[in-house]
User: What shape does this take?
Amino acid sequence: MTKVTLILGSPRKGGNTETLAEAFLSSSEKTARVDRFRLQEMDFSGCTDCRQCWSQGGPCVIEDGLKPLYASLKDSDAILFASPLYWYSWSGPVKTLWDRFLPFAYGDKPGAFTLEGKKAILVSAAGDAEGSCFQGLLFSFRRSCSLLKMTIAGEFCFTGLHGRDEASKRSELLQKLRLAGQSVL
Ligand SMILES: Cc1cc2nc3c(=O)[nH]c(=O)nc-3n(C[C@H](O)[C@H](O)[C@H](O)COP(=O)(O)O)c2cc1C
Assistant: This one.
């Protein structure tokens, strides 16, 4: 069974990115196990640049609410990043989480693990009408996945989604995501 770590980065429960991400996962209900993490409800802090993961190569030493997410990442096959576009980039909690991925860039020491080979999928929604608004987010996603040797398995960034429930009314987008999820997972 495929294992997916779903990172929900919007403070809106059931908002656009969550609706889009769930559509992606909907066709693999029987074939994939999904660990869902709603970052807004989790208690975790930012990277303190202590360099312990650099020098020791182990997992992050901060003892906080990210432990279950780190555990999920360890044996996941795919990581789905669902972030609304905030100021042309990640939402705050997703950016903070990316900072806490630093140990995976130095995972070549005993006891460490990396994200190498895992599939990475991006789902995002923006209020803007121009697709170019995603340039910064896509740059960050691609470069970060490349650095961590993850395989990008899908990028789904949709414009024109501003109101809370707008994605649920866009049946063509939901269908596109359902089909994509079926082929990726
Ligand atoms: C703090 C904040 C910053 C935002 N920045 C942008 C932006 O830079 N570009 C854009 O097109 N939309 C921006 N938006 C709109 C959201 O991306 C949009 O409403 C999206 O559909 C929210 O997804 P969600 O329902 O999953 O939270 C912003 C919204 C908020 C609350």
In short: The chain has a mean pLDDT of 95.
